[in-house]
Specification:
The chain has a 5-stranded parallel β-sheet with strand order 2-1-3-4-5, with helices on both faces. Strand 1 (135-139), helix 10 (144-157) and strand 2 form a beta-alpha-beta unit. It contains 15 helices and 5 strands. The longest helix is centred in the middle third of the chain and has 19 residues, at 98-116. It has 2 domains: 5-76, Winged helix-like DNA-binding domain superfamily/Winged helix DNA-binding domain (Arc Repressor Mutant, subunit A, Orthogonal Bundle); 116-277, Glucose-6-phosphate isomerase like protein, domain 1 (Rossmann fold, 3-Layer(aba) Sandwich), CATH 3.40.50. By secondary structure, it is α/β, with parallel strands linked by helices. Helix 2 packs across helix 5.
């Protein structure tokens, strides 16, 4: 608890001014809402000036209110219930211009992902994937869609790819039972973090397999098990997980791996094109220019 911002606020309340105590009390009682308020809005709600809110942040040891706000957001990402997320989304987005606001938030997540993802970890992850005997991929709940996406394309590139099903813990461990140092596992999870994904990565780590964590923050519990940490921002505080930036990072990972295996991939797709034509897999669309 000692690194918890709420713990720090509670410990220092006796030393605060009357106005700062009002800010502290509001944050302790409504941290899920305060984390997404501007300094002026927080001040207006508790009845103090914006400058008092800024000084409050400095008193806690932060270089301004945005740093305190970021720390609050980091702290609550794995605490919010679905109901709290809906309430926060209503505060953030309102009821108008939803399309513009959501798309702009997603654009910002992609920008931050581009800035923050380690190129060294990304390139090392690509090389480890290419060299692996077996590639295991795991993601549960909403992250299962991302795991399935990677699995689909990696199955076109590699011979031995296993999408780990997480319907039960016992079945999950049966699927990764033989993982070892020749293998790699890709774990994907975002707040609230999946315990099953965590347990799978921990087991793989003990078996000396390489571990790639695709997650949102260095404070994510997946990172402590990982050899390579690929950071993708997913911060929308709502009941819907924003997976735009993670999917973009995954696209880059698939493309980088595909370029490493391009000769084999060419042969695979040549073969697939023949199968698709022979078995009439795709609808043939006539060229409008040819018709005219």
């Amino acid at each position: 608890m000692k690194n918890d911002i709420l713990y720090d606020i509670a410990q220092k309340m006796d030393e605060m001014s009357k106005g700062q105590k009002r800010i502290a009390s509001y944050i302790l009682d409504h941290y899920d809402k305060a984390a997404f308020m501007t300094a002026s809005k927080l001040g207006a709600i508790v009845g103090v000036s914006e400058s008092t809110v800024v000084r409050f942040a400095f008193e806690l040891g932060y270089d301004g209110y945005p740093k305190l706000q970021k720390q609050l957001q980091e702290m609550i990402r794995n605490r919010l219930t679905a109901v709290q997320r809906i309430e926060v989304a209503s505060e953030q987005l309102g009821s108008e211009e939803i399309l513009d606001k959501v798309l702009n938030l997603d654009i910002e997540k992609i920008r931050r992902t581009l800035e923050e993802t380690s190129r060294e970890d990304f390139n090392s992850a690509v090389q480890s994937i290419v060299k692996a005997r077996t590639i295991y991929i795991i993601g549960s709940r909403s992250a299962a869609t991302l795991a399935s996406f990677i699995s689909f394309y990696f199955n076109l590139i590699f011979e031995d790819v296993k999408l780990v099903q997480t319907t039960s813990a016992s079945e999950m461990f049966e699927q990764i039972l033989r993982i070892n140092e020749e293998d790699i596992i890709i774990g994907i999870s975002f707040p609230r973090y999946s315990k099953k994904t965590m347990k799978a990565l921990n087991y793989a780590h003990t078996k000396r397999a390489k571990v790639i964590a695709i997650t949102d923050s260095a404070s994510s519990p997946l990172v402590k098990e990982a050899d390579y940490f690929l950071q993708a921002r997913s911060e929308m505080a709502s009941f819907v997980d924003s997976l735009v930036a993670p999917l973009s990072l995954i696209n880059a990972l698939i493309m980088a791996v595909g370029l490493q295996k391009r000769e084999e991939l060419k042969q695979t797709f040549d073969h697939l094109e023949q199968i698709w034509d022979e078995y009439d897999v795709y609808e043939k669309v006539e060229n409008q220019n040819e018709k005219s």
